[in-house]
Amino acid sequence: MSSVTLDHVYKRFGQAKGVEDVHIHIESGEFFTFLGPSGCGKTTTLRMIAGFYYPTEGHIRFGSQEVTSLPPHKRNTGMVFQNYALFPHMTVFENIAFGLQVRKVNKTDAKERVERIMKLVRLEGYGGRRIDQLSGGQQQRVALARALVIEPQILLLDEPLSNLDAKLREETRFEIKRLQLELGITTIYVTHDQAEAMSMSDRIMVMQSGEVQQIGTPHEIYHRPVNRFVASFIGETNLWEGTVTGFDGDEVLVRTASGQMLSGLKENASPRAQLSVGEKVTLSIRPESVLESTGNEGQNVVTGSVVMSEFTGACVNYVTEVGTESLRSMSINLGRPIKQRGDAIGLHIPKESIYFAG
Ligand SMILES: Nc1ncnc2c1ncn2[C@@H]1O[C@H](COP(=O)(O)OP(=O)(O)OP(=O)(O)O)[C@@H](O)[C@H]1O
Asked: Which of 11, 15, 40, 48 to mutate for ligand 1's pocket (most ligand atoms within 8 Å of CB)?
């Protein structure tokens, strides 16, 4: 297994920007995800690691080995493509064995390795089937087996679940994570699906327009987004504009655009947030952290009128009009009466759950 370093990597396509100044160190054995909307540069970055593109500037290293200008077949990476790129006229066994044949592994060893990997991805007994006789999920596992059988140092996965339906996608993401943990292989995963990224990754790199926005654990990215883009791309959140009006010990006092006075913790500020009196800040408040007020909290209680309530069984989701702002909240269903449109509601926003994005 190997670490991967991208040292100030740029990729331009003629005049067009691909990615700009990607600077990351991925640890050996880490599950690292590139996350962002279409066109943000995820695939371009992955393709540079695989060797299908060469950087315009910067260096790529696997461990201490410089690979920046090595061709793909000299990098020992295994790649799973979005469309799997399987050979339709070959059997499952032949597809998986292909990379070993190219590497001139002798037939007995190849058979043993293919059988071992088929067991690992739960495809035992499917060796003789043609690819078009398999379900989408099974094809996905053949693609994964084909990438793994060559015993790569690094596994590269480009949106490997996007052709599967929602339920299978969820099952398969646990399967990939299980394999990754079992093999301890350094894995780089590309997706635009934040739930996938959050549930599988050790760390996530969030990208937008070819630029890195934030690198962190799922917990850091979710709870300490550095800017509005990250806050709204990862899960649902309320973004309120406010102005810092003062400080009280470790608390920051803020007047929101619609005049609510709220108090948050200084430690919940992203490095890019300007916390000084008179500065504008963006508050990120996750719906699940907003609670129905008991009337005893003292501070950070706002009142409003319910615009929408939605009962999902386990939860009740509210949208509440608070002054000129709207506030989404989500409560666990504890059997209390559900407020309806037009009802008055008091909501408590705990100071620990207010984050200051930059
Ligand atoms: N071969 C190419 N020639 C010119 N421009 C390219 C090429 N490949 C990518 N780009 C541009 O580089 C930028 C990043 O593209 P990239 O495919 O890496 O995005 P992405 O985040 O993987 O998107 P998607 O999720 O849609 O695959 C885009 O603006 C794209 O138009």
From this structure: 40
Decide if 289 contacts 331 (C-beta within 8 A).
Answer: no
pTM: 0.86
Q: What is the ipTM of this complex?
A: 0.94
Counting DSSP H helices and E strands in the chain, the numbers are 8, 20
- Helix 107-120 to helix 136-148 angle (10° resolution) is 130
- Give residue for tokens 């810092």: 244
Burial label for 185, CB within 10 Å (0-12, 13-18, 19+), is buried
Q: Are residues 104 and 195 in the same domain?
A: yes
Does 13 share its domain with 53? yes
State the CATH number of the domain containing residue 144: 3.40.50.300
Radius of gyration of the chain (CA): 25
Which of 9, 10, 13 has the most ligand 1 atoms within 8 A of CB, as the residue to mutate?
A: 13
- Find the 91 Cα to ligand 1 centroid distance in Å: 33
Last residue of a domain, one of 205, 228, 251: 228
31 neighbors 200 (Cβ within 8 angstroms): yes
Pocket of ligand 1 (CB under 6 A): 13, 16, 18, 36, 38-44, 192, 210
219 and 237 both lie in a single domain:
no
358 residues of the chain, pLDDT tens digit each:
799 999 999 999 998 999 999 999 999 999 999 999 999 999 999 999 999 999 999 999 999 999 999 999 899 999 998 888 898 889 999 999 998 888 888 888 999 999 999 988 888 899 999 998 898 888 988 999 999 998 899 999 999 888 778 888 888 888 889 889 988 999 999 999 999 999 999 999 999 999 999 999 999 999 888 888 998 898 889 999 999 999 999 999 999 988 899 999 999 988 778 889 999 999 999 999 999 998 899 899 999 999 999 999 999 999 999 999 999 999 888 888 899 999 999 999 999 999 998 7
Q: How many CA atoms lie within 13 A of 112 on its CB side?
A: 5
Q: Closest ligand 1 atom, CA of 14?
A: 4
